[in-house]
Design a protein that fits this description.
With about 90 residues, this protein is an alpha+beta fold. It is built from 1 helix and 6 strands; from the N terminus they run ββββββα. The chain has one domain.
């Protein structure tokens, strides 16, 4: 489970994307979650006064940190769910 605390906009294939970051652990300077198309967040164009490739705190943009799933977490959650259901059948 991760919460988006920072966001950075960039362009890829002529489309606006957002890189989503959680608060970094003590041993790192960033914790990247994943990249998404900005339109998936309801953002159709770069907000005024923001720069591409610059990381912003979502709170500074008036956005409350929000939950998002890192792809590796989705896989681990699914594996754990299957293991739990299998173990429950064995009991």
């Amino acid at each position: 489970m991760a919460y988006v605390h920072e966001i950075k906009f960039f362009v890829k294939d002529k489309e606006l994307y957002a890189a989503l970051f959680d608060e970094p652990p003590f041993f790192s300077n960033e914790f990247w979650i994943k990249n998404v198309r900005a339109k998936e967040l309801g953002i159709l164009k770069l907000p005024e006064n923001l720069q591409l490739e610059k990381k912003y705190k979502v709170k500074d943009l008036g956005i409350k940190p929000f939950h998002v799933t890192k792809p590796e977490f989705e896989f681990m959650d699914k594996v754990a769910e299957v293991a739990w259901k299998t173990a429950a059948k064995l009991l």
